[in-house]
Design a protein that fits this description.
161 residues, alpha+beta, two-stranded antiparallel ribbon, 5 helices, 5 strands, elongated
């Protein structure tokens, strides 16, 4: 199955809030912020520019297991600096392939100039795929049984989303 759902549509539905910290924040401050926002990763920005991603995985592997102190370790010293992002018109299957191929869970969404538009997580992408697959299965069941299919999912194919 090939979806027509784009990253832009996911952001429109879930919201485009971007939680970020400075590279000069301590790991502890970043972890507190992540707990407050109930997220598994934050974007690392300097003067509005995306410079990295800091995740629970970064903390576990580069701080906790390395025996570093989260109170004196700076985010810039343990963040993932080589950020892989996607554009707003990227299809969700492409995002899933990228995420599984690169072992990443969060994709910053950037515009043509590199401006940060939002973030999609592996959970966001999988949720969209499940909704689409449920719809297709329902349509096939109705087709095979001869019943009238349910109407399409609202706004799923609207290119403006």
């Amino acid at each position: 199955m090939y979806s027509i759902v784009t990253v832009q549509q996911i952001l429109k539905r879930k919201g485009a809030d971007v939680w970020s910290v400075s590279p000069d924040h301590t790991v502890y401050e970043a972890l507190q912020f992540m707990a407050e926002k109930n997220v598994g990763a934050v974007m690392v920005t300097r003067e509005g520019d995306l410079v990295g991603v800091f995740s629970e995985r970064d903390y576990a592997r580069k701080v906790a297991l390395a025996g570093k102190n989260e109170h004196n370790t700076k985010v810039k010293d343990v963040m993932t600096g080589r950020v892989i992002g996607v554009g707003p018109h990227q299809k969700i299957e492409e995002c899933l392939a990228l995420m599984t191929g690169k072992f990443i869970r969060h994709l910053p969404v950037v515009d043509a100039e590199g401006g940060l538009l939002g973030v999609v997580s592996i959970g966001d992408v999988v949720k969209e795929l499940i909704v689409e697959q449920d719809f297709v299965i329902d349509q096939l069941v109705h087709y095979v049984s001869g019943e009238k299919p349910r109407p399409p999912i609202p706004n799923r194919t609207d290119p403006e989303l």
